Give the backbone structure.
Amino acid sequence: MKTTLTLFLLLAVSLVMAQKTTELPRTEFTVNLSESNVIVKPGESKKVTVSIARSKYYAKEKATLGLLSTPPAGVTITYSPSEGNIETSEATITATADAPAGAYQLVLSASLNHKKKGAILKLVVGSDQIAAK
């Protein structure tokens, strides 16, 4: 009876662990964000983790992080680190005190071996009420 219970628990733990592992792409790479919706009040900053999942072919390639879209006036996005053989980077989204309120879509990108891919970040500058519109 104990053996059956132990085997059942091991099977359950294995299934849970298998579901939580990040699946690597078969070819190329993918860009993922820790959050896809961010609200930044004017004069404040928020941080989002940018992750790069690579296939074996791209495992040793140097990545350069950037933007595929233009941020609104008064909004800047910086990465730390911004290039190298990185798996994760922290993007800091900063809105100046006079940044215009509104909802925007930005594409945070990574470039590896002359190929660019990105992930969409829905950015709201202002309050939660703007995000609800």
